[in-house]
Write a structure and sequence with these properties.
By secondary structure, the protein is mostly beta strands. The protein has two helices and eight strands. The protein has a single domain, classed as TruD, catalytic domain (Pseudouridine synthase). It comes from Thermoproteota archaeon.
Length: about 160
């Protein structure tokens, strides 16, 4: 079966048709943020999950100048969330580290680290509709890109 694409972007890229032996399902994607879920997977196998953040063991805990936290975003890009957190924690934007940009049109969970956050308890009060800190711990080290293995995607059609 040959199916013509409906996407302008795909046509621009030269992807005009799909060839498949299966009939189309005629579903819709991304009607709600919860239809596209992005969760980080760390090198040690830890998955930063949306639905059970309190059970996630945040790696590299201990006394130190850093806070490691689980950031849950709904319909918000990573940079806007980091800006909001930097203002709430009264730290510079560059004091917050993250392991990658996540899709703004999604529900996502990712690990962040914040340097020199004097009042980390303020993080748990941040519930701006789109941004929430689900959990945090102290750490001697900031996040490093090599800690990220990849992302787990859940797509609801």
């Amino acid at each position: 079966m040959i199916v013509k694409t409906r996407s302008d972007l795909e046509r621009e890229l030269g992807l005009e048709y799909y060839v498949t032996t299966s009939p189309p399902i005629r579903g819709k994607i991304r009607c709600r943020y919860e239809d596209f879920i992005v969760e980080e997977v760390l090198r040690d196998g830890t998955v930063i999950t949306i639905d059970s953040c309190e059970k996630v063991k945040i790696p590299i805990r201990g006394p130190g100048n850093y806070i490691r936290a689980i950031l849950v975003k709904r319909g918000c890009d990573t940079l806007s969330a980091v800006y909001l957190l930097s203002r709430a924690c009264k730290v510079p934007f560059h004091a917050i580290s993250y392991l990658g940009l996540k899709d703004a049109r999604a529900l996502s969970a990712q690990l962040i680290s914040i340097k020199d956050c004097k009042e980390p308890s303020i993080l748990l009060t941040i519930k701006k509709g789109k941004v929430e800190i689900a959990k945090y711990v102290r750490s001697p080290l900031p996040l490093k890109r090599h800690e990220l293995y990849g992302n787990r995607f859940t797509i609801i059609i």
